[in-house]
Amino acid sequence: MNKTRNRKKNTADENFIGYLYLVIAIVLCLIALMHEMTGFLGRWLYLLSRFLFGVLWFIPYVLITIYCIMRAFRFRLPNKVWTSIGLFFLASLMICGCVSFRKSEGGLNLIKEFFSRSKEIISGGEMGKGGLSGVITYGLISAAADFWGVIIVICVLFAVGVLIHLPEIRKLLNRPKKPETVKKKPAEEKARQFTLFDEIKASQQERKKEKQLKLELENERKQLETKLERREEKKEAEVPAVVPASSTPTPLKNFKLPSLSYLETPSVNKGSINRRNAAEKWELLRDILESFDLDSRLEGYNIGPSITQFEIVPEGSFNINKYATIEGNMKMAMAVPSLRIEAPIPGKRAVGIEIPNEEPTLVRLKELLKDVPDKYQYEPLMFVLGKDITGKGVYSLINKMPHILVAGATGSGKSVCINSIILTILLRARPDEVKLLLVDPKKVEFSAYANIPHLICPIITESDKVPSALVKLEQIMNERYELFSNSGARNIDEFNEKYPERKIYRIVCIIDELADIMNHHGKELEISVSRLASLSRAAGIHMILATQRPSTDVITGTIKANIVSRIAFAVISGYDSKTIIDAPGAEKLLGNGDMLFKPGDAGRPTRIQGVFVSKQEIDTVTEYFTKSGYYPEYDDRFLHDEQEEGESGESVPSGVKDRQYPEVEKWVMTQETVSANQIQRRFNMGYPHAANLIDALEYNGVISGPRGSKPRDVLKRSE
Question: How high is the pLDDT of residue 180?
Fold first, then answer.
């Protein structure tokens, strides 16, 4: 209680001092304006301003008085208005200089003459009409550009002062009439109906315009598609679209990233409809706040892709938690399906009330990848989340997270978010920079990425193979740390800088449906995940875990302690929201990509409308790699299958008894190096079959042991 009283006293003292300064400034300005009746002080202020500004001496005092009165009543003019006033005042001073002197006079001599007569001018003698400011501006410009140059500068200043308000003037001319904001009386009900009908007509006209824009955009998109198809047909006529199985893959030295033309164009912005809807909702919200005696004023509003946030400043001393107590009344008054209150907004002295937009706008990946900030331009692990409530793009780095937990109910946008992260990596990172380890127990989520060159191993679709895959990731981590210690590097970045010829790629492990895997291998998986999450950052290994069941038996305390960056989509209850982001709020999200993003270094989550990625975009990008001849180069340690027991008790690979083994062995002995990918393309077989043959060749001593992602050496060669 004492602390709150002290805070109130401090704020009251600060307000009193601020008002005291404003009153003093207004009194001094009035004394100067009435200098003939205010004695020595008024005369002195008059002579000072006359010396500085000439016949326009009164304008600064008038502007200061108006500004202080506006500050006292908490009314602010935009910065553009004050800029225009300054430009007009400067142009007026230059006009006074033009009137005071002849065309032949000008240059720096006028300024010297003015300063030589400064004592006489201050005491009330004759001077130019623009004062010191007018003489200096006129003298400097006339010295450089003569008299007519001064006239041109004056015209430019007036033109700039008007043109900076051109967007506002257009909005005022094109804006439809809005219903009055005052409370309606019975006598005004008829007029109110007419204004509402006018608003409906205006909205119908805007919708017609938006339909026309959509048709134009679709026509442009079709034209671009036809052009691309023609180019592809020409390329297909020259080079085969798909590389034959027996041919060699395109080397990574010639690797080219796919362009953004494979992505779909952004949709039409619904800003005008949402702005009109926001104005109507604010009137209803203000009425409901007044009915509960919550005196509040609108500080500002932010219209995002899917929600609008009102920044409300409470007036008077009452508990801001009262807003949460009338949340149901607000939802009923505004007729919205969901409403979220953020009290207070981080970094602001305001309460945020978030309501859904009437017309949500899709956030496209192409739109955000075109405007990547400079600090993220050359980061291979940069990913795009979406747009915040102000409409700005949200970008982040996986290696700064360094691991992410994604959770949300079915249909909330979780899978689309993961697909957008994968697609961003494919569009920005080379296969020798980033490798992906994908785990898909549902067998359908990641099937489109089966042949991308960024895979470190085939997509894992069986839950029983996940623990062994994580164990192999631990082996890679330990090998890299041993390599760092021998080379004197602390992490992967330092090692790649010291030894660019031995550059190590980063690994991103993405596990979908974590709950299904935890049901089968709970404790074993928890240990591997916690170990990787706590140690693998410096080794360049990162994890993204996703689940649609955010319960404590899936997202355990150990996993949460090691994975501090979280993304929460719409969930059923506040308990699930606390499990994901340690705070309520996710239960009030709208779904369809609406998320709360909480990085590890943030105290509060940020609301974001996620990026939408269509299946057509994914297929187009993945087909690009297939047509270009880029194939995945798997790490051999992930391709070892179960081995059969021989009669002598030794483990014998199943590929030894394969009927194609003699033919494969004969061909391998003619090569210097070999890998499972080469065998797969040469003999037109699947990767598991080729991996079994690699194990058999190693067992018989034909080839060497695994060498990471590099091909194996052939030890026995035919003459």
Answer: 42
